[in-house]
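Hi support team,

I'm opening this ticket because the web form for multi-chain structure prediction keeps timing out on my end. I have pasted the exact lines I submitted so you can reproduce it. The total is 442 residues across four entries, so I didn't expect it to be a heavy job. Is there a limit I'm missing, or should I split the entries? Thanks in advance, R.K.
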Amino acid sequence: MFSVYKRYAPTVCGRRTLPLIGQPQPERADAARNRRKIIEVAASMIAEHGADDISLDEVARVAGVGVGTVYRRFGDRAGLVLALIDDRERQFQESFLTGPPPLGPGAPAAERITAFLDALVGRVVAQQGLFAQLEKCGKTIRYSGPYRVHHVHLATLLAQACPNADPAFLADALLAPVNARLIAFQQEERGMTIGEIKAGLARLATVVTCGYGVPPGGSQR
Amino acid sequence: MFSVYKRYAPTVCGRRTLPLIGQPQPERADAARNRRKIIEVAASMIAEHGADDISLDEVARVAGVGVGTVYRRFGDRAGLVLALIDDRERQFQESFLTGPPPLGPGAPAAERITAFLDALVGRVVAQQGLFAQLEKCGKTIRYSGPYRVHHVHLATLLAQACPNADPAFLADALLAPVNARLIAFQQEERGMTIGEIKAGLARLATVVTCGYGVPPGGSQR
DNA sequence: AGGTTAATCGGAGTGTTCTCCGTTTACAAG
DNA sequence: CTTGTAAACGGAGAACACTCCGATTAACCT
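Hello R.K., no limit was hit. The queue was backed up. Here is the completed structure from your submission:
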């Protein structure tokens, strides 16, 4: 009755002769080969059928490995999804951390915020199915990995742009609408285009960065 | 391969002698009895073990009905969750549609917006587990039922408070952070209290309603 | 080479969600 | 009370997510 599934530690190796704590060694050759094969198969299955309905059993079968192998490599469905997201995500992070302005450093914080939200919408739309999967998965995962990086980045910019705000909360609040499922809903049922969504967020960000110039309670009507 | 589950139409009855379209008749006595029994059992199981791990098989077993019956009554897991949410939701809707100000009619729109978001956070927190379940379920459900009502209400108020904004988009954007899983994350990992979350939203709403006084582009720094 | 051993592997097994369909039942009309 | 029938019932069954564990193997050491 009730829950039963526990979580595998997504084994990340350790060589025998070096049991030094905190020194993860590279994967064994067969493990690395399987990881690549699984990712490759999963990616092509998603390209063909969409991300909604991938079964990990099926992925394992097509990849020619046991189910256990998939789970040992990636922990669970969310882990595999995260791995599929990883490539583009790394590129995206580079672009706002070290790329050219207005996304990267060099532009005023307010502009970077708008540029970041704009790019983030694009990012999510580019892998909408995968992000939607992520939101469906275990609670821990959703606010893991990419989300945390995005949050730190946005909160830092907000701290510069509006010194009287709570940047952590505000970053959560601005990140919340950039959500694969909400965006899909806005497109399908509200008839909005991606451009309109981006414009709406940009304006919201502008209003927010301007509006938080005054301390709490200072602008009460 | 890939998806297989189709969706039952959550049978809502129809009497034989009155096949008039659009005139749904009350449920048969046995059906109504089972619906009540299932809800009752599910509610008590959730009260005891939390909402995360209820198995519909288990609910069916304890309620003394077949699994098929559960699915015929409620469509799927999300449908049952929605039913469990329904009572309080109706009360909540009454309170902002016809209750006393500032939540109900009578107060200025800006105040009602703040009051509404405040109450909504309370609402979500009161059944956090169930709302979290809902977000995990099929995409159609998440933006169904309660969400749509909340959205219409908030968009209406926003249309009054900030005539230059896109109320539909803005309502989505303000509703997005009021999210069971985000709130849980903010509590657990950011160490925020519900009071702080409510305060943050209230301030955001104030800034937004004030900031959208000017047309798009008008307040560019 | 050959030995050692921890990491890896595969797949049978458990619990869950949801569907299908043959059987039963509530209820209205005669 | 009997009968007709749409609706409801139950539970076997298909597909899936994830776990467990005995067998296998890569890679380091002598």
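A quick check on our side: Chain A has two domains: 8-75, 86-211. Let us know if the file doesn't open in your viewer.
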